[in-house]
Specification:
- It is globular, with a radius of gyration of 17 Å.
- It starts with 16 loop residues before the first strand and ends in an 11-residue tail after the last helix.
- By secondary structure, the protein is of the alpha/beta class.
- The longest helix is centred in the middle third of the chain and has 26 residues, at 74-99.
- It has nine helices and five strands, in the order βαβααβααβααβαα.
- The relative contact order is 0.19.
- Helix 3 runs antiparallel to helix 4, helix 3 (74-99) crosses helix 5 and helix 8 (199-210) packs across helix 9 (226-232).
- The protein has helices spanning 29-42, 57-68, 74-99, 109-119, 124-134, 150-155, 169-185, 199-210, 226-232; strands at 17-22, 47-51, 102-106, 142-147, 190-194.
- Residues 21-206 form the Thymidylate kinase-like domain.
């Protein structure tokens, strides 16, 4: 588990907003990204939906190499992810934030800390420092962690697995545990949600957390239902006893 250290990166430039979706494979990040993008567009915001790796043409080349190419050693893997992240942030994310867009990325630096830093045992602090250097300290305003038991995630899998998906159950368990540890260390940035819940419930909780951070518009007001408020409260959640 990493020490409870405060974030060291710089806040995202104004007036844009930066949101990252994190969690294991098949936790529902793509679905939540799409739903969030639809809602934000309805409110009149410019929305940029992207992913890591693969958010740019160069990133897609790197994605194919790291996920679908020949096996590489852990350090090369970490450096490929960092290369993609540096290019992604400087070519796509920062310009969009400077325009005032809301950028929603499927994975960001926390994935590298959990997968390469913890599960690959390369060192959480070293991998975090590498990503912060590559991005000039850019951290999201909100990081949504979709928490799902690895066995449940594996049951959702369709198609041939990529290099990361083929890793052992123990590997994916370490990833999950470290994501939860990261959330506990930075509760102000993280929103932890049970990814086994219905997609609409998860979406409502994300809206409730994000709405106060958006430019004020009448349509951006989210009804403060008890369930949404409770679900959106920052927490360093641990796996539920009934999971």
């Amino acid at each position: 588990m990493p020490p409870a250290v405060p974030p060291t990166g710089a806040p995202a430039p104004q007036p844009g907003r930066f949101v990252s979706l994190e969690g294991g494979d098949f936790a529902g990040k793509t679905t939540q990204q799409r739903m969030l993008g639809d809602w934000l567009r309805e409110l009149g915001h410019e929305v940029v939906l992207t992913r890591e790796p693969g958010g740019t043409p160069l990133g897609q080349v790197l994605r194919d190499a790291v996920l679908h190419g020949a096996d590489v050693d852990p350090r090369t893997e970490a450096l490929l992810y960092a290369t993609d992240r540096a290019h992604h942030v400087h070519q796509l994310v920062l310009p969009a934030l400077a325009r005032g867009a809301v950028v929603v990325t499927d994975r960001y630096l926390d994935s590298s800390v959990a997968y390469q830093g913890a599960a690959r045992e390369l060192g959480e602090q070293e991998i975090r420092a590498l990503s912060l250097w590559a991005t000039e300290g850019l951290l999201p305003h909100v990081t949504v962690l979709l928490d799902l038991d690895p066995a449940a995630a594996a049951a959702r899998r369709t198609g041939a697995p990529d290099r990361i998906e083929r890793e052992s159950a123990a590997f994916h368990t370490r990833v999950r545990e470290h994501f939860l540890a990261l959330a506990a260390a930075e509760p102000g940035r993280y929103l932890v949600l049970d990814a086994a819940r219905p997609a609409e419930e998860i979406h409502a909780a994300i809206r409730a957390r994000l709405a106060p951070l958006l430019p004020a518009t009448p349509d951006a007001i989210v009804p403060a239902t008890p369930d949404a408020v409770a679900a959106a409260r920052p927490t360093g959640a641990r796996p539920r006893a009934d999971r």
